[in-house]
Design goal:
Chain lengths: ~280, ~290
């Protein structure tokens, strides 16, 4: 191993020592918390870079972070085109349709406890199934372009959101429902003023799970056939050409998109459910 | 058991919808065939034909059931068409990955609960790692490991492990922190050491959380294995069966593989559930 590798190991040791020291000294300070997490992430990247360079790992096996960064900057138009195809068209369209349909279904079956008792176990069961498997079927039905990817995403996000929304609509306690009854509120008034707001924390839980599922669905569906653009297409063809730096560049974009979407939902959740104990506590 | 009737109603509705959709989607092909042959067909003939096509757009439920039956019971177990063989391949990789992922999750959780620095550094990144569509890199992991000469079960197990470790980690951290201050104080008055508190209080009280996340984890491990079987080159396993079905337009084969995967998932979750019930009962924690 060369000097670069030892340097990275040394940096790792120093950073970890600093982290342990900081964590013991300032256990409850928020800036320290985020600094410690940041430092840990930076350390991982430095260690990765140092070990790949120090041990002379072939770029065909694992490219160094600097190679990946170079690949990102060299291929920005290509990455943007893939991002637009997979995330903006496939994943986002499917996410909106799927979540919308799930919420609508949950509200539709809300008046019938009979249907709910039947739908909830079935939905729970289906949510645990390897739904990605229907990707080849839907690609066959809807063609190679983004519509089939959106369809896969719709099916993947539907059940987790449905299950959470049904549970959320049932989450009000008897006391608040009685209060609405004493106000002689109608069904729709109770729904809009009491039960939909009470269901929001559950709904956002489902929406957060669905963000990752949506990206996975859109990317994996492209392995079964796609036009000559899209992140899944690029990943599978670049692996064939052993251009792993480009593959990792796509993965970086996917990771940023996933974290960004997740962060966006979290922000909306903070704004919409500011009254909930889980948001007030912090 | 009072929810049996509603569940059956919903299932019946799904099957009925499915038959309806099968007729709607498959009738075009029947009409095309009839037009080519120059005959007109009555509606009942169309109905009968849509149920028995060889490569329907959407196979009818009984065709899928027959495909499943042929796959599980109608073949020798060693045959390439046997779903028993493919399910076994997928099952073994899932189990290997699930074991690895569970172990990693528990070890990390113990570390996080006992070291504040670990908690501050690892936890945010563990959460961030789950917003990454990690399944997308499955084919890359497979190809890279294959170029290193590692093939077969291990690459699939690694992906399954990555997917199953996170639910276990989160559940275990929650579970190990479940004992309240009073119980911890009691152990302190007994002058219990850290490891004693861990073995006698924290670990037992984390069991319900562990099993809840094991159920999620085992389903995730199965999804990981199936996707890991998709890249070209894999010839065995339910994922490979899906892919070859999609290449050759064998819709019944796709649907049979899909339902085999669903059955496998249900069986795995059920097994974890049974183990959960037995363990919690022995520990006196059964509800």
């Amino acid at each position: 191993m060369s000097a670069v590798g030892y340097g990275a190991l040394l940096f790792w040791a120093c950073a970890m020592a600093l982290n342990f020291h900081l964590a013991e000294r300032f256990p409850n300070s928020r800036p320290v918390r985020s600094f410690v997490a940041m430092l840990f992430g930076v350390t991982l990247i430095v260690l990765w870079q140092g070990l790949v360079r120090g041990l002379n790992v072939s770029p065909v096996i694992l490219p160094a972070p600097s190679d990946i960064a170079a690949a990102i900057f060299a291929n920005i138009p290509l990455l943007w085109q893939d991002f637009a195809q997979t995330i903006l068209k496939g994943a986002l369209a499917g996410y909106l349709i799927g979540c919308g349909a799930a919420v609508a279904t949950a509200i539709a079956v809300d008046r019938s406890p009979f249907l709910q008792r039947g739908l909830l176990p079935v939905g729970n069961f289906v949510a645990a199934l390897p739904i990605v498997g229907i990707a080849p079927i839907l690609v066959m039905w809807f063609g190679f372009d983004w519509q089939s990817k959106a369809a896969v995403v719709v099916v993947m996000v539907f059940f987790p959101v449905l299950v959470n929304m049904v549970a959320g609509l049932a989450a009000t306690d008897a006391l608040s429902r009685d209060l609405m009854a004493t106000y002689s509120a109608s069904y729709s008034q109770t729904l809009i003023k009491l039960r939909l707001p009470a269901a929001l924390p559950f709904l956002f839980n489902g929406l957060k799970i669905a963000t990752t599922l949506a990206l996975i669905g859109a990317i994996v569906a492209e392995f079964f056939g796609s036009p000559t653009r899209g992140m899944g297409f690029r990943i599978s063809t670049s692996v064939g050409q052993l251009d792993l730096a480009l593959v990792w560049a796509e993965i970086t974009v996917a990771a940023l998109a996933g974290s960004g979407l997740f962060g966006l939902i979290t922000m909306i959740e903070k704004a919409a459910t500011f009254w909930h104990p889980s948001q007030r506590g912090r | 058991m009072r929810s049996i009737l509603p569940i059956l109603t919903v299932l019946t509705a799904i099957v009925a919808l499915w038959y309806g959709a099968a007729v709607m989607l498959n009738k075009q092909w029947t009409y095309d065939q009839a037009a080519r042959a120059g005959v007109t067909v009555t509606f009942s003939q169309v109905l009968a034909d849509t149920m028995t096509q060889e490569r329907p757009v959407l196979p009818a439920p009984h065709q899928v059931a027959k495909g499943l039956w042929d796959g599980f019971a109608g073949q020798k177990i060693t045959s390439k068409k046997s779903l028993v063989l493919h399910s076994w391949i997928t099952f073994s990789a899932t189990m290997a990955g699930f074991a690895l992922g569970t172990l990693a999750g528990i070890v990390l959780a113990v570390g996080i609960v006992h070291s504040r620095a670990m908690d501050m550094s690892v936890m945010p990144w563990a959460i961030a790692s789950q917003t990454i569509p990690i399944l997308a890199i499955a084919p890359m992991v497979i190809v890279v490991l294959a170029s290193l000469g590692i093939k077969g079960l291990i690459p699939k197990a690694i992906i399954a492990a990555y997917l199953s470790f996170f639910p276990v980690l989160v559940g275990m951290v929650k579970g190990l922190r479940a004992p309240d201050g009073m119980q911890l104080d009691l152990l302190r008055t007994y002058n219990a050491s850290g490891s004693q508190a861990f073995w006698k209080l924290r670990l037992p009280s984390s069991m319900p959380y562990l099993f809840a996340s094991l159920k999620v984890g085992v389903a995730a491990a199965l999804v990981g294995t199936i996707v890991a079987e998709l890249p070209a080159g894999a010839s065995q396993g339910l994922g490979a069966r899906l892919l070859s079905g999609s290449y050759y337009g064998q819709t019944i084969q796709i649907w049979s593989a899909l339902f085999a995967a669903a059955i496998l998932a249900a069986v795995l979750v059920l097994i974890v559930g049974v183990i959960e019930r037995v363990v919690l009962k022995r520990m006196g924690m059964a509800k």
